[in-house]
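Good morning,

Attaching, inline, the backbone tokens for the sequence recovery test we're adding to the shared suite. The designed sequence is right after.
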């Protein structure tokens, strides 16, 4: 290969690389313009196209994460930020990525994980006031969350105790009702037995008409015999002997 041909090839390669770089840069720049215009969905499309050209590009991954975040696609944003995190070795840049990861986690209500992300950011950039503020805010949220959870547990336990007491009272009421019902049933049985006994006694004490007539006839006969005997006694004369 001649010297001139080598030079031409080098120029072509450099030119191609420059064109590729310009194309990638244009996609990102256009995406940023759309992002600043709050056209987050269109910005996302540009950043995706940039990643199709160069998947390990830090800027494209980071910008895509921002576009996702503005669309409340927090899970996707976290993944994009994590991809960007692995594409840089600069501590200040990593701190910024961790800060954004913390924000996405906090928006996802993953408070404990967001706290860890903010702490990682502050390890790399201890003077970042925004991250300090967000960390303090997340810690307060966690404190309130734990407090509310404790209160909920106490309320739940109290409700369970009240329910148990209510069930116990209902069982006692039911047992008392059963006992009262049994007592009423027994009283009814005793009353019925007493009434049956009274009716039996009344039945036993009753006499038939024929029996009454026989008794009356017997009484009459007895009276006649008694009168007859009395007359006999009256007819006799008792002889008194002189006692001298």
């Amino acid at each position: 290969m001649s010297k001139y041909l080598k030079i031409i090839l080098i120029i072509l390669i450099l030119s191609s690389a420059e064109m590729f770089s310009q194309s990638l840069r244009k996609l990102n720049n256009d995406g940023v313009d759309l992002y600043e215009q709050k056209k987050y969905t269109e910005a996302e499309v540009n950043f995706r196209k940039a990643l199709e050209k160069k998947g390990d590009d830090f800027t494209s991954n980071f910008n895509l994460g921002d576009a996702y975040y503005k669309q409340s696609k927090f899970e996707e944003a976290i993944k994009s930020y994590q991809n960007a995190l692995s594409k840089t070795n600069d501590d200040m840049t990593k701190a910024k990525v961790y800060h954004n990861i913390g924000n996405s986690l906090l928006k996802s209500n993953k408070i404990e994980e967001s706290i860890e992300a903010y702490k990682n950011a502050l390890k790399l950039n201890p003077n970042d006031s925004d991250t300090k503020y967000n960390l303090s805010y997340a810690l307060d949220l966690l404190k309130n969350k734990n407090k509310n959870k404790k209160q909920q547990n106490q309320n739940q336990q109290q409700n369970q105790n009240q329910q148990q007491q209510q069930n116990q009272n209902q069982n006692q009421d039911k047992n008392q009702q059963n006992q009262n019902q049994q007592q009423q049933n027994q009283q009814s049985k005793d009353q019925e037995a007493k009434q049956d006994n009274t009716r039996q006694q009344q039945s036993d004490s009753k006499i038939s008409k024929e029996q009454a007539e026989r008794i009356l006839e017997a009484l009459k006969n007895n009276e006649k015999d008694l009168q007859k005997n009395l007359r006999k006694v009256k007819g006799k004369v008792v002889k008194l002997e002189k006692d001298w």
